[in-house]
């Protein structure tokens, strides 16, 4: 919340064990800065069935986003869906996020934007999964939020922070009226570290 990535109970997250056909998704209405064991609902990925008959809460209204992403990306073990303020501002004014630093290029690699679909619809998940099926890890859901994926919760969280940082720097660049030259892509070779 303090980082401006989400307001109130907006946003949700999920995680799974590598290769598992079940994931834990935050429950509807959960505040991400107040998580505990009861904040999650266990769901089977293949059919969306709830796996805990005694679960006290329903999964997030965006659980289809998480399931569709896991189906499209077997390498993904964490999905973070947030509503980062600067990312959404840039989307609203039609400005793409520029990867300004080597960390942005290394951790984000690219940012794809999907067309607007009202929140909670299965189409949100279908579009996000299609956008990340090629290995993209950061998807802006137009006028809604973002979906950031990784093989671990820690890396997904890091990517979400870098996405908002790249958006903030892009916004400042626009205010200054100065374009940012793209980073050379040849420095990012297999095995390179940032």
TrEMBL record:
Domain Class II aldolase/adducin N-terminal: 2-171
Keywords annotated in UniProt: Lyase, Metal-binding
SUPFAM superfamilies: AraD/HMP-PK domain-like (SSF53639)
Pfam families per the UniProt record, alphabetical: Aldolase_II
PANTHER family associated with the record: 3-OXO-TETRONATE 4-PHOSPHATE DECARBOXYLASE-RELATED, FUCULOSE PHOSPHATE ALDOLASE
Protein name: Aldolase
Organism this protein belongs to: Dactylosporangium darangshiense
């Amino acid at each position: 919340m303090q980082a401006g990535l989400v307001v109130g109970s907006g946003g949700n997250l999920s995680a799974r064990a590598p290769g598992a056909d079940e994931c834990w998704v935050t429950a509807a209405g959960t505040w991400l800065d107040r998580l505990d064991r009861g904040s999650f609902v266990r769901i089977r990925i293949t059919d969306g069935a709830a796996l805990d008959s005694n679960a006290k809460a329903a999964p997030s209204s965006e659980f289809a986003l998480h399931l569709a992403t896991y189906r499209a990306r077997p390498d993904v073990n964490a999905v973070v869906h947030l509503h980062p303020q600067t990312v959404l501002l840039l989307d609203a004014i039609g400005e793409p996020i520029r990867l300004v630093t080597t960390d942005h290029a290394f951790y984000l690699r690219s940012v794809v934007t999907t067309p607007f679909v009202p929140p909670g619809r299965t189409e949100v998940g279908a579009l996000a999964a299609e956008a990340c099926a090629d290995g993209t890890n950061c998807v802006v859901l137009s006028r809604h939020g973002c979906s950031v994926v990784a093989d671990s919760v820690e890396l997904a969280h890091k990517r979400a922070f870098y996405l908002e940082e790249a958006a903030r720097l892009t916004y400042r660049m626009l205010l200054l009226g100065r374009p940012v030259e793209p980073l050379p892509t040849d420095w990012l070779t297999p095995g390179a570290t940032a």
